[in-house]
């Protein structure tokens, strides 16, 4: 007998009783037992706050990103083991890859974003410096710091690997430790995942914990600095969100709940078109991948009334070829549901749906099973329904969380949007059409009710990840019934685990607080040009001043001839005088930028390796022949690159004329080497 352990307070702990059995979804045999009896949940949370949190917050974003990448690589080496164990949850190999590879992919994605988009620092600055006074001595800026609490995960049964990892990645990168509470049916797979994580020795102690069994009094011990991320049913989300500690302490609560997602077929997608075939294929995939146990699966298939028969027949024909059975059988394309209890829940929901529609394919009580005993495993047939009246309530209110979808006819784009909104909030929707006008009408109409919308057609089908696939770069969540929350979304998911604070002070103090030079702070000008300094020697505020250089009419004409930019404001005096912004011939903006580079550069070989771009370029005052240009280049932000012998330096660049007026402002981005060992 295998009893699942919890990994809390720095050790693996057995429960105080034998626990409840967890059955193999395919064979019905006992896989393990689960219980959290005797597990001190309060101590686990405190361990995360006092041990895991401080260890993470000592690391920079780049260091945390490097650990995520190392963990992803480690787990990738153990994929086959996780695939094999996934089969006991009823998952086919394709289902297992969707779960396991998807979760590992999220780790890689956040590791990459952490290195590319976040500073090698422990503080995240947001937005630009805001001037708060006329004299420039009072400014403000938003900064984000990690919450000194624990990110508590309460996960669903359907994605026992992806679910924990997609929540872990942004929390870890933000600097928050995680406590994972998996759903019971498939907790043995999550437990093995955490064994692999803990056994790797890669992550600091206390940054990942596991509670196998019921949540018990876990929420009673939350604080204002903790975060709860829930995935599961809308009803459970409402109950947990109303917990007195969650409401009383304003604990951040993010819910990603099952929803009645829809897919809309455009009127242009008639039989024989690529879009018609894509729609039928996508609907079958969403019904059968993970046996339809996806919070993003298509529950409502909205089809033009004139095409309803064609779609019904096309989908029925495809479903008839789907082999249901044991994942070990090569021909099987749909495995079992996660448990017998889950199958019974789907059947109960189907009874309500059958009141509003008739079956096109499948019998919920009968199924041919390959390689397994249909009486012992949690198998059922895919079931496609056809609603007689699309405006009846049941298809828009009842979700059968399994291989079930309902065809609903619509009249026009407005009616399709109305039906989509009847779901009262969805995680995902899709529109399959090549008609941009129809797509625009549906997308803009349905967007307020959806977290994510896919427009699928021949143009993007080759690279599309499909209706039901959340992506790390985009938000995953939805309004209303879908939980009202957001996960992932690139750095948005990281910021969810941080506190945004507005800091108001003088520019010199803001420079000191953030480590980023702020205009209005003193500059440091020495005999050593900043380009002659190695990364370790540079300081925010180090400055080079170059110029003045006089811009001549000959300069303007030669630049125009050389570049081919003979725009009239540079070459035609009469036309330029008629321009209300200039009143005469002016120098090219890029001539100004080029002259500025010549004024601030230190040309000899040295620590500066490359200029890799400009940002925030604005031309503020026209430059006329005879004007004198001076450039002030100031080290604004210095970011060492973790594990590399160089870093990035952002330079504030201010080009002024003889009157001291700024004619151009921008940031120069360079790569600067560290001092040789």
Topology:
Blueprint: E1 6-8, E2 11-13, E3 20-23, E4 30-34, H1 41-57, H2 61-76, H3 79-86, H4 93-117, E5 124-131, E6 139-146, E7 151-154, H5 162-174, E8 178-181, H6 187-200, E9 208-210, E10 227-232, H7 234-241, H8 244-248, E11 252-257, E12 261-265, H9 274-288, E13 298-304, H10 308-319, E14 324-325, H11 340-354, E15 357-361, E16 369-370, E17 383-387, H12 394-397, E18 404-410, H13 413-421, E19 426-432, H14 436-446, E20 450-456, E21 475-478, E22 485-488, H15 491-495, E23 498-505, H16 507-514, E24 543-550, H17 553-563, H18 568-571, H19 573-578, H20 589-600, E25 608-619, E26 628-640, E27 646-656, E28 662-673
Helix pairs in contact: 2-4, 2-5, 3-4, 4-5, 9-10, 13-14
Short description:
The protein is α/β, with parallel strands linked by helices.
User: Strand arrangement, largest sheet?
Assistant: 15-17-18-13-12-19-20
Largest sheet: 7 strands, mixed
Cα-atom radius of gyration: 30 Å
Helix content: 25-40%
Low-confidence stretches: none
Quote the distance from N terminus to C terminus. Answer: 57 Å
Shape annotation: globular
How many helices? The count is 20
The overall average pLDDT, rounded, is 94
How many strands in all? 28
Give the strand content. 25-35%
Structural class: alpha/beta
What features would you highlight for this structure?
677 residues; alpha/beta; five-stranded parallel beta sheet; 20 helices; 28 strands; 32% helix; globular
């Amino acid at each position: 007998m295998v009893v699942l352990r919890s990994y809390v307070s720095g050790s693996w702990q057995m429960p105080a009783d034998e626990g409840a059995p967890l059955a193999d979804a395919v064979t019905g045999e006992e896989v393990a037992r689960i219980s959290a009896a005797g597990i001190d949940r309060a101590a686990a949370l405190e361990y995360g706050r006092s041990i895991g949190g401080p260890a993470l917050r000592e690391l920079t974003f780049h260091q945390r990103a490097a650990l995520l990448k190392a963990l992803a690589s480690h787990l990738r080496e153990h994929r086959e083991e996780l695939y094999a164990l996934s089969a006991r949850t009823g998952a086919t190999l394709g289902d297992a890859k969707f779960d396991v590879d998807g979760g590992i992919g999220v780790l890689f994605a956040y590791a990459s974003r952490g290195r590319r988009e976040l500073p090698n620092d422990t503080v995240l600055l947001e937005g630009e410096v805001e001037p708060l006074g006329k004299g420039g001595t009072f400014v403000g800026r938003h900064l984000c710091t990690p919450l000194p609490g624990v990110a508590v995960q309460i996960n669903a049964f359907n994605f026992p690997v992806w679910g924990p990892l997609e929540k872990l990645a942004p929390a870890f990168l933000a600097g928050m430790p995680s406590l994972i509470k998996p759903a019971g049916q498939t907790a043995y797979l999550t437990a093995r995942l955490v064994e692999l994580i803990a056994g790797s020795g890669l992550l600091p102690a206390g940054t990942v914990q596991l509670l196998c069994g019921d949540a018990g009094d876990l929420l009673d011990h939350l604080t204002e600095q903790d975060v709860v991320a829930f995935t599961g049913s809308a009803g459970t989300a409402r109950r947990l969100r109303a917990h007195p500690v969650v409401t009383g302490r304003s604990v951040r609560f993010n819910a990603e709940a099952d929803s009645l997602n829809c897919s809309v077929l455009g009127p242009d997608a008639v039989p024989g078109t690529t879009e018609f075939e894509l729609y039928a294929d996508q609907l079958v995939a969403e019904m059968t991948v993970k046996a339809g146990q996806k919070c993003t699966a298509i529950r409502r298939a909205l089809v033009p009334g004139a095409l309803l028969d064609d779609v019904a027949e096309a989908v029925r024909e495809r479903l008839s070829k789907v082999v249901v059975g044991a994942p070990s059988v090569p021909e099987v394309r749909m495995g079992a549901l996660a448990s017998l209890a889950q199958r019974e829940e789907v059947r109960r929901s189907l009874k309500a749906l059958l009141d509003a529609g008739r079956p096109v394919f499948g019998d919920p009580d009968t199924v041919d099973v390959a390689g397994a005993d249909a009486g012992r495993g949690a198998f059922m047939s895919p079931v496609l329904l056809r609603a007689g009246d699309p405006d009846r309530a049941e298809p828009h209110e009842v979700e059968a969380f399994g291989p079930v979808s309902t065809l609903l006819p619509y009249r026009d784009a407005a009616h399709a949007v109305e039906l989509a909104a009847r779901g009262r909030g969805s995680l995902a929707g899709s529109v399959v059409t090549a008609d941009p006008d129809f797509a625009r009408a549906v997308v803009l109409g349905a967007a307020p009710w959806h977290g994510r919308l896919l427009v699928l057609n021949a143009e993007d089908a080759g690279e599309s990840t499909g209706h039901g696939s959340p992506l790390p770069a985009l938000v995953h969540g939805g309004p209303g019934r879908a939980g009202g929350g957001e996960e992932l979304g690139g750095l948005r998911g990281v910021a969810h685990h941080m506190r945004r604070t507005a800091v108001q002070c003088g520019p010199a103090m803001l420079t000191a607080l953030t480590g980023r030079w702020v205009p209005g702070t003193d500059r440091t000008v020495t005999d050593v040009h900043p380009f002659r300094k190695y990364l370790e020697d540079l300081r925010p505020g180090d400055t080079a001043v170059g110029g003045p250089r006089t811009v001549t009419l000959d300069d303007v004409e030669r630049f125009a001839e050389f570049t081919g930019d003979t725009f009239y404001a540079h070459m035609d005096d009469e036309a330029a005088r008629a321009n209300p912004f200039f009143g005469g011939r002016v120098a090219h903006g890029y001539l100004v930028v080029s002259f500025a580079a010549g004024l601030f550069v230190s040309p000899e070989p040295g620590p500066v390796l490359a200029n890799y771009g400009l940002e925030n370029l604005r031309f503020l005052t026209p430059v006329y022949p005879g004007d004198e240009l001076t450039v002030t280049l100031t080290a604004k932000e210095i970011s060492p690159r973790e594990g590399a012998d160089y870093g990035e330096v952002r330079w504030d660049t201010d080009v002024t004329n003889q009157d001291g007026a700024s004619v151009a402002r921008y940031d120069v981005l360079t790569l600067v080497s560290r001092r040789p060992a």
